[in-house]
């Protein structure tokens, strides 16, 4: 420290703040973003406009949220990668809770991931059979939910076409086919147990439904983790792509695609553009790339690189690790933002990245992390405010009180978005409820609600076996 004491840090901070300014969105700008999303949502719901909408607003055919009377035993299947999870869930009306009775993991070998569709679904059916045996459930025909983590186009509640394989899967004979039909055929080939019907739903709906059982005011589901998405209960009269005027239907917004038509160009920074250009899917999922966990760490790394090149960090010396794509993990952001241990965490992380740092550097890195995560939180708040205010307006209410079911590590680690909601949706009082296993218990709850509806044919639009789909 020289005779000017802390002045060098103040000067560097002013220059750093200037470089971070594009990430700082005013309340007015956030309201503009909300207005743009509202227009895109209307376009996505339209019968003749949805095909060119960046926000797809997909009908899910789920017509009700839990009312607390659901009960019984249900199965849930969760295929999210190289492991396949099977669960037995019991819903107890008297105690108003869901209990995971047991679960089992089945590995999916590489040869099956790259084999035929018949091999894959036979393997899934075999895993389910083994689990039913272990639980002494073979003699029962239980409703079941299935989380299927691949992009599908839903034609009906029980008909969903696989668009493309992702995550290292490339089973032949499945793309362009109805996965519900393939699952049923595999189970029928075995002949040792049976199922009734299958409903396909997005995993965001599972988040909403798992929270909706605990809080019947929950009518929005939101995921902010590796990716991001939201769903909500829309009035049927506004869902122009589906016949019918009465009641409600859950809409899977697919809001990660917001901005894919260029509508967010004015708030994209140079760093956002690099992240998009170097991603595996340039030009798509614009909104997701600005707020979700898969990309936040890389945005921070690019900012730190720029500041170092400008000699505002690390005496202008860049380590090989900092030069390398995706070495700054998103989890580092929340570690560095920790109120008590953040600076110490920053020092350890910077050392691990091979950087020569001082206290000023650690503080600047923390400021960068706070700025990037705050933008993510505020953009997410603007999008959520759009949905809650739409629900309020749909019902002609001066004020709306509702609950949002949320899941995802980014939300859990960065709850700043709650602070922005008051200003962006002043006529709405929002409670946040963290989901407990949306892909497992949530799938079971979708099935439980469908099972209840099946007892009332006049409102039955969802059959009693559910298949949850993530459009990753």
Automatic annotation (TrEMBL):
- InterPro entries assigned to the protein according to its UniProt record, in alphabetical order: ATPase_NBD, Hexokinase, Hexokinase_BS, Hexokinase_C, Hexokinase_N
Question: Which UniProt keyword terms apply here?
Answer: ATP-binding, Glycolysis, Kinase, Nucleotide-binding, Transferase
Q: Which reaction does it catalyse?
A: D-glucose + ATP = D-glucose 6-phosphate + ADP + H(+); a D-hexose + ATP = a D-hexose 6-phosphate + ADP + H(+)
What's a single GO CC term here?
Answer: cytosol
In this protein, which residues make up the domain named Hexokinase N-terminal? Answer: 17-213
Q: Which parts of the sequence belong to the Hexokinase C-terminal domain?
A: 219-449
Q: Where are the membrane-spanning stretches? A: none
Gene3D superfamilies reported for this sequence:
3.30.420.40, 3.40.367.20
Sample GO molecular function, one term: fructokinase activity
Tell me which Gene Ontology terms the entry assigns under biological process. Answer: glucose metabolic process; glycolytic process; intracellular glucose homeostasis
Q: What is its EC number?
A: 2.7.1.-
Q: Which pathway does UniProt place it in?
A: Carbohydrate degradation; glycolysis; D-glyceraldehyde 3-phosphate and glycerone phosphate from D-glucose: step 1/4; Carbohydrate metabolism; hexose metabolism
Q: Which domain of life is it from?
A: Eukaryota
Q: Which family does it belong to?
A: Belongs to the hexokinase family.
User: What protein am I looking at?
Assistant: Phosphotransferase
List the source organism: Xiphophorus maculatus (Southern platyfish)
């Amino acid at each position: 420290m020289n005779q000017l004491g802390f002045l060098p840090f103040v000067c560097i901070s002013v220059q750093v703040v200037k470089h971070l300014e594009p990430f700082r969105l005013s309340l007015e700008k956030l309201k503009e973003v909300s207005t743009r999303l509202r227009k895109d949502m209307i376009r996505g719901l339209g019968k003749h406009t949805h095909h060119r909408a960046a926000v797809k607003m997909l009908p899910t055919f789920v017509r009700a949220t839990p009312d607390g009377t659901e009960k019984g035993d249900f199965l849930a299947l969760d295929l999210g990668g190289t492991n396949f999870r099977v669960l037995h869930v019991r819903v107890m009306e008297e105690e108003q809770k869901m209990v995971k009775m047991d679960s089992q993991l089945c590995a999916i070998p590489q040869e099956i991931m790259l084999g035929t569709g018949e091999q894959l679904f036979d393997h899934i059916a075999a895993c389910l059979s083994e689990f039913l045996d272990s639980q002494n459930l073979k003699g029962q025909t239980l409703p079941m939910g299935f989380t299927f983590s691949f992009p599908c186009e839903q034609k009906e509640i029980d008909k969903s076409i696989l668009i493309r394989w992702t995550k290292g899967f490339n089973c032949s004979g499945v793309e362009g086919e109805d996965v519900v039909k393939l699952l049923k055929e595999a189970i029928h080939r075995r002949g040792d147990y049976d199922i009734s019907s299958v409903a396909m739903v997005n995993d965001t709906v599972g988040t909403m439904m798992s929270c909706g059982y605990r809080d019947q005011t929950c009518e929005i589901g939101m995921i902010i983790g590796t990716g991001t998405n939201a769903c909500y209960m829309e009035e049927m009269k506004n869902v122009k792509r589906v016949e019918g005027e009465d009641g409600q239907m859950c809409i899977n917004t697919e809001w990660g695609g917001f901005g894919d038509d260029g509508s967010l160009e004015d708030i994209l920074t140079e760093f956002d553009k690099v992240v998009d250009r170097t991603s595996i899917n340039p030009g798509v999922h614009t909104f997701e790339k600005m707020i979700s966990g898969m990309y936040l760490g890389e945005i921070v790394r690019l900012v730190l690189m720029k500041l170092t090149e400008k000699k505002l960090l690390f005496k202008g010396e860049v380590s090989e690790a900092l030069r390398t794509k995706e070495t700054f993990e998103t989890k580092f952001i929340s570690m560095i933002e920790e109120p008590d241990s953040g600076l110490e965490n920053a020092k350890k992380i910077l050392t691990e990245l091979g950087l020569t740092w001082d206290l000023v550097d650690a503080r600047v890195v923390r400021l960068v992390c706070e700025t990037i995560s705050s933008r993510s939180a505020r953009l997410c708040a603007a999008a959520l405010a759009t949905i809650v205010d739409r629900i309020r307006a749909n019902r002609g209410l001066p004020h709306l009180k509702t609950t949002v079911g949320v899941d995802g590590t980014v939300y859990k680690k960065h709850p700043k978005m709650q602070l922005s909601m008051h200003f962006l949706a002043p006529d709405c009082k929002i409670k946040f409820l963290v989901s407990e296993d949306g892909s497992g218990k949530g799938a079971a709850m979708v099935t439980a609600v469908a099972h209840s509806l099946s007892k009332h044919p006049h409102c039955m639009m969802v059959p009693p076996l559910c298949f949850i789909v993530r459009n990753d």
